[in-house]
Amino acid sequence: MSATPSATPMEITPMEKCVILYFRLTMAWTFLYAASHQVFVPGWTVVGFLNRTKTFHDLFAIFTTPTMAPITTYMVEYGHLLIGLSLLTGLMVRVSASFGILLMVLYWLAHMDWPFIENRNNFIVDYHLVYAGVLGYLVVKRAGHVFGLDAWAENLALIKEHPSLRPLVT
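Below the sequence we write its predicted C-alpha cells.
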C-alpha cells in the first residue's frame, strides 16, 4: 500500500486573482457600508432589529436586555468596521472572514420566519448565506495574499519568532 502524495498548492491564475480581489473588496465595502450606518450614527442600537426576530426570538431577545444591548451594539458596529478594514487591506483575512461568516449566519437566523428569510421572496436561502459562501471562498483561497498585507505580514520578524501567530496571516 503506497502513501498518497500530499496535495500541492495550485498556482492561482491572474484571472482568479482578479476574482479574489473583487470578492474581497466588495465584501469589504459591504461591511464598511454597514459600519457607516452604525458607528457614525449617534444612538444606533441593535435592539430594534433583534426585537423583530421571529423564528428564534427567545434566543435573540437575550441580546436586547438593558445589560446586553450596549455590549451587543458595540460588538456589531465595531465588528463590521474591523471586518471591513481587514478585508480592504488584506490583513488577517482568515480571521475577519471567519467572523464575517459567523455574523452572516447569525443574521440569516435573525431574519428567519421559517421557511422564509426576511420576506416571502427568499425561501430558506438569502444573500446572507451567499455572503457567507463568498467569505468562505476568501478564507480557502488565502485572499489576504492576493494584493493584500497578509503576504507582507507573514514575513515579519514577530510572526517568524512566534509561530503561534502565523495562522492569523497565512
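Confidence is low (pLDDT under 50) at residues 1-8.
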